[in-house]
Specification:
By secondary structure, this protein is α+β, with helices and mostly antiparallel strands. 24% of the residues lie in helices and 33% in strands. It contains nine helices and 20 strands. The strands form four sheets. A six-stranded mixed beta sheet has the order 6-7-8-3-9-10, with helices on both faces. A hairpin with a 2-residue loop joins strand 4 and strand 5. The mean pLDDT is 92.
């Protein structure tokens, strides 16, 4: 049995269905990341696990015990919030120990746990300071320390890095990953940032409109997306999508679009054949596209409008001929000289994805 289980858990607010009959499980020590755009139901799901919201239906099980009706204090969980939620009149040590004091934990045990957590988080020198004397990253470490000292069965993180600047977010991602390795606790982490999801998760849960769109390892959701939504949400820059049609001219199947055509990859052909004569959506990641023409693969012509030079690479954005759509590609080096020029680009066949039409169109390659 999984350590944490959500069994057909749903949540309604009046007539609005926020979470739709969700089945989700996490093994002991697993790091699960719920990711999706604002309003997809990920934070509501986390709050139901924490006991801050009651499910409209379904069951929540932690370590074999049904906690659906249990109070937050009786679930043996610890939650780290987006806004830190530190008591301003208490110093760091008092903030970290407050929950243990409420539980009437012996003082010797409290001191031992606070010192151990402070050492793990490298905040021993901050224990006497007040929150106003700390930086954003230090406050987040204190919030994590307050969760650690409770020694819970499950850690819950609700967008803990969203208030930090980009450099500090990167540093804190590493801190959280190292912390999870040290403690080995089951963790559920909510974010809208797919970079956080890719770098932290053992398994990613991609959500949209209250439903799970895909669960899998970072490699699975990036390289084998189940539908167009997942393909477009995971990855930066986002995947390019091109309208095409599957055509059978007596030889290999072909994808034919406005001003481009290419063979259907062999692995995709059995699934694509049933779409012969019908529209599909091709997907190609910006990192898979290359500057220059090629006799093999998908060949396109790009009118470059914008070049974002990032030091080691350039992100080129522009349009395809005949208003066939927009395209973005990543290329090593500085290519600012290509602005307002039309250039040939190509992608290998094995880098292509294809989906049924529609926002959540299923993949043809699985």
């Amino acid at each position: 049995m999984s350590y944490l289980q959500l069994q057909k858990v749903a949540k309604r607010f009046g007539d609005v269905q926020v979470v739709q009959a969700m089945d989700l499980s996490a093994e002991a020590g697993e790091f699960i990341v719920l990711v999706g755009a604002s309003g997809c139901g990920k934070s509501t799901t986390l709050r139901m696990i924490a006991g801050l919201e009651s499910p409209s239906s379904g069951h929540i099980v932690i370590d074999g015990r049904d906690v659906t009706a249990a109070t937050p204090a009786d679930r043996d969980i610890a939650m780290v919030f987006q806004n830190y939620a530190l008591y301003p009149h208490m110093n760091v040590a008092q903030n970290m120990s407050f929950a243990l004091e409420l539980a009437r934990t012996p003082k010797a045990v409290i001191t031992e746990r606070v010192q151990a957590a402070a050492q793990v988080l490298n905040i021993q020198h901050l224990l006497e300071r007040k929150p106003r004397e700390l930086s954003g990253g230090q406050r987040q470490r204190v919030a994590m320390g307050r969760a650690i000292v409770r020694e819970p069965k499950v850690f819950l993180f609700d967008e803990p890095l969203s208030n930090l600047d980009a450099k500090l977010r990167g540093h804190m991602r590493i801190e959280i990953a190292l912390l999870h390795r040290r403690l080995g606790k089951t963790t559920v982490y909510v974010t809208h940032d797919q970079v956080e999801a890719m770098t932290l998760a053992d398994r990613i849960v991609v959500m949209d409109q209250g439903r799970i769109q895909q669960m899998g390892s970072p490699d699975e959701v990036f390289n084998r997306p189940l539908n167009r939504f997942v393909a477009g949400f995971i990855g930066s820059p986002t995947m390019n999508f091109l309208d095409a049609e599957v055509q059978d001219g007596g030889g290999p199947l072909r994808f034919v679009g406005r001003d481009f055509a290419c063979e259907v990859p062999a692995a995709m052909a059995p699934h694509a054949r049933r779409f012969t004569g019908r529209p599909v959506v091709l997907g190609v990641r910006p990192q898979a596209l290359r500057l220059g023409a090629s006799e093999h693969g998908l060949g396109l012509r790009l009118q470059v409008k914008v070049c974002e030079y990032l030091g080691t690479e350039s992100v080129l954005s522009g349009s395809l001929p005949g208003e066939a759509g927009e395209l973005t590609l990543s290329a090593p080096g500085n290519h600012t000289g290509l602005i307002n020029q039309t250039v040939a680009v190509h992608a290998p066949l094995d880098s292509l994805h294809a989906f049924e039409p529609g926002e959540h169109g299923r993949s043809l390659g699985l």
